[in-house]
Structure formats: structure tokens, C-alpha cells
Write the C-alpha cells for this entry.
Amino acid sequence: MPGRSEESHLVWHEDLGSQAARGPLMGGRGESSSPWSALRRVAPLMILASFIVCLVLYYVSPMGAAAVYAPSAASETTGLDSVTTEAYRKRLRIRGTQRRLPQALIIGVRKCGTRALLEMLNLHPHIQKNGMEMHFFDEDERYANGLEWYRKKMPYSFDNQVTIEKTPSYFISREAPARIRAMNSTIKLLLIVRDPATRVVSDYAQIMETKLKKGRQVAPFHKRVLTPDGEINDGFKAIQISQYAVHVLRWLREFPREQIHIINGDNLIRDPFAEINKVQQFLRLPPYITPDNFYFNETKGFYCMRNETFQKCLAEAKGRPHPYVDPTVMSQLRKFFVPFNEQFYEMVGQNFGWPTS
């Protein structure tokens, strides 16, 4: 055609044979009845339609949504760090989802396995976790922002998913129990505990690591937990946190015992499925998580998680080695906690059998 470039001519006339060989859609008349010719014309449309159907099925399914939302899976495939992945996840909305106030909270205890608990529960497609510790109920400045502000910080979720938020410091807060009850008096609370003396050592290990990274001096363990006259230093915050009976009393004043599920943190390390299965039942979730979702990592020395699309171990900071502690100091610490532990057992109706010396 006059004015048409050679390139354009070649695009439209890849087959320079007879007009009949091009078929009726290209102005031909000959092989229009050939099934292969018809298939070649509709194949692109069929592929596109199949792709659209797959996308629709994926995004309306809770299983698909769980895979999209899981920051751990996203970070494995994108190479993004967890904070960046979490930021992207919060901006992502899938049709049929909305931000909701949490229906369950992990309220503590610090250094008892709260992060492991959250990540293990996140294996379930009906769980939607908020990966950041919000400190909404224990910090006055944040609480003053109101529930709508808090709700907008939650991830998008489907109607059949349970949104969970984790802030371990809620457990020791004087204000948090009443504030949470004011939000939702029927909310389900998850509390994970471990041997209180071992928890103090773990707490100290994190404090020590943080200070050393900043180039600050760290007092030896025995000088932190003991007073100059050799008594237990009740003013050390790590020891105060481990007095579970003192703190749980505030929660039992606001919530019935059946709304608080207590996880054995020591057992979560040894047999994660046994504890997670109890949580599935407490949250009334379908029994999706199985023993196959956990495998022991010989290198790290603890259990890691996996599902159909990814596998994940906790960050290196989790399960950090504990410093050496004089057995005499450890025995003294355990004896100190005995009356607190016995009172805690009685209050919650559960005996954890922690060492007494």
C-alpha cells in the first residue's frame, strides 16, 4: 500500500502465500474449515481466560489469601526483609477483605516464645497476623489515638479469618486488661509462660546483647539478680516480669479464665504441634496445622516451620545462647519464685511443674 512502511507490510503479511491460505479473517477463502487453523486463532483467548479464572480462584480462597498475606512466605520469595514485607502486606487489599479489630491477642510473656507462637499460628490459613507489636493498650499516647486508628493498623482479612496481634508487654501493664475488655469483652487471650528463672536468664541475654551492640558496659548476671547483701534483687524488671501471679491477677479480674488460654512455652520448644493444636481448638479453627508443619533443625537446635509453599526458621536472635550462670545463683533464683509459682498454679488451675531449686 502507498505510504505503508516495509515493516508494517511484513507484520501483516507474514505468510506471503495465496489469499486462500490466510483464511477468511485475513481476507482469504480456502482453509477456514481447518480445526488447526481455528485452534490457532482461539488459543490466545483460551490461555488468557484460564489465567483469569486461576487468579479469581486464588484470591477468593482463604488458602490463597493466606499465602499472599504471609510475610514469611513473601520474604522468602522476594528477598525483602520482614519489616519491608510487612509494610507491603499492609497496603495490599484483596477483594472481600477488610481491616478488623483483633479477635485474639497474644498478651505475653516476654522471652517465653511469643514470636514463635505467632509465626506457628500463622501457618493456619484462617489466621491473619499483625506482625508488628502495636503497644496500643499499654502506651497512653498510642491509646489516645482511638480504636479506629488501631483498627487501621491491622491487616486485611476475610470473614472466616481470625486477626491476631502480639504485644508481650500487655501482660505486665496495669491499664491493658481493662482497655482490652472495653474494646471486646469476649476476645480470646493467649498467654505463653515458661520456667520463670530461665525466663530471667533469657531476658538478661537479650539485654546484654543489645547493650554490647551499642558499646555499653554490661553487669554480670549475678550482680543484676542479686543485691549487694546476696538477696534476690526484686527491683530488677526481669525478675518482676517473672512473677506471673502478680500480673495474671489483673487479667482474671477483667476476663473469665476460659477466655485465657495458657501455653506451656517450655513444651512449645520440645513439641510445638502439641501446644499449637490446643490453640487451634481454643480459637475454634479447623484442624489445619499438623505435625508435618514442623521439623527439627539440627544446626539451629530447635524446630522450624513449613507448609506447601515455604519453610522458615525464626531469626538468629531467637534462641540465642544463654550466658553462664552459677548453679548456686540459679538455685537461689528458683527458690525465690516458688511461692509465686504455686500461687500462679492455683489461680489458673494448671501446674507447670517448674524446678524449685
Q: What stands out?
A: The longest helix spans residues 35-60. The longest strand covers residues 188-193. The chain is about 45% helix and 10% strand. Residues 1-32, 59-85 have pLDDT under 50 and may be disordered.
